[in-house]
Hints:
The protein is an alpha+beta fold. It has helices at about 15-25, 35-50; strands spanning about 10, 25-30, 50-60, 65, 70-75, 75-85.
Amino acid sequence: MTEVHRAIIKPLITEKSTLQKEMQNQIAFVVDRRANKIEISKAVEQAFNVKVTKVRTINMRGKKRRMGRTSGRQSDWKKAIVTLAPGEHIDFFEGV
Length: 96
């Protein structure tokens, strides 16, 4: 990928990722499947103005879904778990 800011698609806000954010200062993102760890790290640092210490990536398989007699699959996607430096934080829902 040439443009770093296109690496992040959206933050992944689930019960597990909320606990990781509170306990271990880790944030989960849905990222472009072609992005590597270095691009993801640079994109998070530029977008949120924080210091990233570690990035872990997981390729997730899309789930099988049925609609009546027709069956299909959701798209595959890539998840990145970004560990922030101590003292750094990102607030997605500040004041809500």
